[in-house]
Amino acid sequence: MIMDVPQDKAQRAQALRETLDRYNREYYVLDAPSVPDAEYDRLFQELQALEAEYPQLLTPDSPTQRVGGAALSELSPVTHRVPMLSINTETDKSAQGALSFDARVRRSLGLDESDPPVEYAAELKFDGLAINLRYEHGLLVQAATRGDGQTGEDVTHNVRTIDQIPLRLLGNSPPVIEVRGEIYMRRDAFERLNARQRSMGAKTFVNPRNTAAGAIRQLDPTIARQRPLSFFAYGLGESQGWTRPSSHAAMLDALAGFGFPVCTHRCVTEGPEGLIAFHAKIEALRPDLPYDIDGVVYKVNDFALQEELGFVSREPRWAVAHKYPAQEEMTRVLDVDIQVGRTGALTPVARLQPVFVGGVTVTNATLHNEDEVRRKDVRIGDWVIVRRAGDVIPEVVSSVPDRRDGSECEFVMPTECPICGSHAVRGEDEAVTRCSGGLFCPAQRKQALIHFAGRKAMDIEGLGDKLIEQLVDNAIVKTPADLYKLGVLGLAGLERMAEKSAANVVAAIEKSRHTTLQRFIFALGIRNVGEATARDLARYFGSMDAVMTAELDALQAVPDVGPVVAQSIHDFFAEPHNREVIEQLRAAGVDWPEHEPAQAPDGPLVGKTLVVTGTLPAMTRDDAKAMIEAAGGKVAGSVSKKTDYLIAGEAAGSKLDKAQQLGVTILDEAGLRALVSDAVSTDATSDEAPPQKNLF
Ligand code: 5U1
Fold this sequence. Notes:
alpha+beta, seven-stranded antiparallel β-sheet, globular, five-stranded mixed β-sheet, binds ligand 5U1
């Protein structure tokens, strides 16, 4: 029986929807959250409970309705009411591209030298997939891909899962408006997704654009929901009952006012000079942008002039994309070498036929590890796709088997370290093969010293890779403590080391004696301890002695330190050589301020490790993580024997299988909530990670 809805409940549901929409916008669009996740979570659950009690209250734009409905059997075609045009591309060098475009525009408008410059809007060309979003009376009713420009595919079910796309427009919405823009995946989200794939032994995704496009064309929206996608608005389709602003820039402002994310890297400028400056500025910024772009777009700003200019064969005369060099190219693998890292990891590196990609000539690209070489099926002599995005190390994305001629040969991981000849060992459950030489291996010693002197560690200016190489090769330095014994005379004799530079290096070493606990811990190069963990350890324990003597449980109480990291830290300090080096450094006068340890965390999940997988009915995985951490628990990325609970939602995949195999307790969202309010006890197994070898 359906009950009448009391007025106060209806009002409350309406208020909750509005508040949650605002919080969502602040978080996802404005990047400025105003409340903690737990508060959002509380209101979300309240709305869910109201909608469950009074189904009449459920509206299609409710924040609870982002993932709903069953998987489709196919995507339906959608005819675009206003065709989705493509854009003409300029690939000329920066100045020429903008000059040619401006010259074409002026010619088409019949302007001569005496006429004023044309006003342009410049923005980014995102490397994603174009989408048309149709809103009727403010509600998102349809999302369609570009397709051939006339007919696209209906992907509304997946687009609704994108938190940055409003389900309802803000303010006074016209009866009909179609907003166009690009769906893309941020690079950090892509890296996280691939790290997760690797940890599960699953196939990695090729690049953010293909991953975003693949997610949007899925039939099952729960899959799209698991691939974090973003959106930028940059255009219009059909509109009815709306007075369109008079320029592109004003239209973008109006779209931002409706609640859409509009990229802030844009400008309005006159004539080609401003376009040239914008092109150069964005090119410099490109490596630091959190998403891929393949160029910039110039548009005539005034809509009346755009109409006058019109189109040539589905491309507007009023816009052009001015591209940057591609970030992916094809080249050949000449050989595969092995690089030995700081912790002895042997990394296969493809030596490439030089190729210009992402604005530089690339000759080497990482292949990560043996499994990746197999998964991507890369052979010596293969044609491969190489990617270089931003300042990320170039990597081989995939091989191109169609271009093989039979002369290619398989890569074999060596069984000995190519530098010191020690055994190369691959641990059980590990993807990495390591040199077992430890301090004996000069490659590891060099890398450990390079790390120690690095900017984020002891920050010893002038002590670069080449100098460290000479110091190790000439047996002048064996451990970091030896650095503090160096004098100008000892250094001045080395290659490319004049007395002045030697004095500068000695002064920089001197200066590094007074540091912080965080830098010192990071400088030690403990496996799995990055900058953030070093900071957390320093904050939590306050002193070096407290970190060195901490037991596994105490280490695991530090935020974000799981069993694997705790074991690495514990093993490192259990090694007498490492403790000796720390003592020598202290004796050499290296010091840092210390403080009292922080309070131990509290809550029903202290000491417990949980993994969250699949789509939970009423909370995102970030919400679940916050809830677990607030209760003192740890969240891990993969299931192991040390997992206490697996929190599994819809479409939980291999983690669920693994948890079942290992006999890990499996709970749903309701189980998690019960756990947080009343912790269930369990027998945590304690198996030991392999010991860590000496680093110095
Ligand atoms: N920023 C932006 N990207 N982009 C792509 N604007 C823009 N406009 C486009 C396309 C294909 O097309 C219109 C010029 C029709």
